[in-house]
Specification:
Blueprint: E1 3-8, E2 20-27, H1 33-39, E3 47-49, E4 56-57, E5 62-69, E6 74-79, E7 83-89, H2 94-103, E8 128-129, E9 132-133, E10 138-145, E11 151-155, E12 176-186, H3 196-204, H4 212-226, E13 244-245, H5 247-256, E14 262-265, E15 268-271, H6 273-279, E16 286-287, E17 290-292, E18 300-302, H7 308-326, E19 335-336
Parallel strand pairs: 2-5, 3-5, 4-19
Antiparallel strand pairs: 1-2, 6-7, 7-12, 8-9, 10-11, 10-12, 13-15, 14-15, 16-17, 17-18
Helix pairs in contact: 3-4
The structure holds flavin-adenine dinucleotide and uridine-diphosphate-2(N-acetylglucosaminyl) butyric acid.
Length: 337
């Protein structure tokens, strides 16, 4: 096991903020996970698991040990005519797994194409896009407790998934290391074309009987046109969650703002945070190197040398103005450290 000391994390996460960790360990084999966890002394803690760093904002140096999991492998557990169940190692890259499934005609994850990050992080916020969430295909996941080294399997229900939410962000925050995920995919896929822009892009491309491969291609195209590439400007995707509000509160807002962008949600009405921020005229605004993306205002950007504190200060001003104008408090989606 190689322990690096005082390692810079700037290249290890997509916001590209200058921050370092006291210790950094990469784990390449499943059998090393428990021994590594148990070998860490109190002085080397706290422990943080880092995937590809596409949903984190460092506001200070990390005082303990950052661990990255690089385990690879997609194994078929069982299958019948309808479904195939696969176990994916936690270090696999999410989009490479999607590509692997789509190539084989296994449906269920094609709408989640091109989401950055690793498999091990995907359940943390129940990744979602274009009308689909991870919880729809996740069977169970394997974990190791970060204090005791004990292994525990969580079923889908145990994970308490919600919109950009799971038990690993709530009561069990920072306690478990997700080491493998089991997915149930459909051999006779039902396409999920409910999301407006996917349907429109398929029509625009003249595709009348789409396959999951077509859906993947269209989703990739939409994403490339809408979301900034972290290689061009550091970011972590949507900085805030889309707020879900009560239907009576929505009725009041709709009266005042007839153009408000909203979506039906099982817990009320989901609002487009991008629209709320846009209405407060934040698009393209900058404070030094911390900025609001000019086309997608839900994405905060590091144009070069912004600090995590500066990004957070900008986020705070945005929250304040949305609160004053609409009476809605935006919640961060990014994990702030
Ligand atoms: P990291 O950012 O490294 O970690 C995220 C959190 O998970 C941290 O708290 C970390 O400690 C924890 N963690 C990571 N791995 C493990 C593990 N193995 N065990 C326990 N805890 C762990 N998200 C969406 O849902 N939908 C989108 O459409 C979407 N689009 C994005 C677009 C862009 C351009 C970017 C930059 C991000 C986007 N995201 C999106 C956010 C991000 O891709 C997801 O949250 C992703 O799952 C993060 O994976 P990661 O490996 O980078 O995790
Ligand atoms: N909009 C504006 N002004 C703008 C941009 C957008 O008013 O400048 C409005 C538009 O009306 C648009 C609506 O906002 O219809 C929603 O925008 P978009 O389709 O880009 O989606 P989003 O709500 O901003 C969410 C997720 C994304 C996910 C996409 C596609 C959250 C917090 N974000 O973004 O996830 O990829 O939908 O499903 O739920 C992420 O989590 O990091 C992420 C990128």
């Amino acid at each position: 096991m190689v322990i690096e000391e005082q390692k810079s994390l700037q290249q290890e996460h997509t916001f590209g903020i200058q921050a370092s960790t006291r210790y950094f360990i990469e784990i390449n084999r499943d059998e090393d996970i428990v021994p590594v966890i148990l070998s860490l002394t109190e002085d080397q803690k706290p422990i943080m698991i880092l995937g590809d760093g596409s949903n984190v904002l460092f506001t200070e140096n990390f005082p303990g040990t950052v661990i990255r999991l690089n385990t690879k492998g997609i194994a078929v557990i069982s299958e019948n005519e309808e479904f195939i169940i696969v176990r994916v190692a936690g270090g696999e890259i999410w989009d490479e797994v999607v590509a692997y499934c789509v190539e084989r005609g296994w449906g269920g994850v094609e709408n989640l194409s091109l989401i950055p990050g690793r498999i091990g992080a995907s359940p943390i916020q129940n990744i979602g896009a274009y009308g689909v969430e991870l919880k729809e295909v996740l069977e169970e996941l394997e974990t190791v407790h970060l204090e005791t080294g004990e292994k525990r399997t969580f079923s889908r229900d145990d994970c308490r998934f919600g919109y950009r939410e799971s038990i690993f962000q709530q009561t069990l925050r920072g306690q478990y290391f997700i080491t493998g995920v089991t997915l149930k995919l459909a051999k006779k896929p039902t396409l999920n074309l409910g999301y407006g822009s996917v349907k429109q892009e398929l029509e625009r491309s003249g595709i009348t009987s789409p396959t999951i491969k077509d859906v993947r291609e269209v989703v990739c195209r939409i994403r490339r046109s809408k979301l900034p590439d972290p290689r061009d400007a550091g970011n972590a995707g949507s900085f805030f969650r889309n707020p879900v509000i009560r239907t009576d509160q929505f009725a009041g807002l709709k009266q005042q703002y007839p153009d408000i962008v909203s979506f039906a949600d099982s817990n009320g009405v989901k609002l487009a945070a991008a629209w709320l921020i846009d209405q407060c005229n934040w698009k393209g605004k900058r404070a030094g190197d911390a900025g609001v993306h000019p086309d997608q205002p839900l994405v905060l950007v590091n144009y070069g040398n912004a600090t995590g504190v500066e990004i957070l200060a900008l986020a705070s001003l945005i929250r304040q103005s949305v609160l004053v104008k609409f009476g809605i408090l935006l919640e961060p989606e990014v994990n702030i450290l």
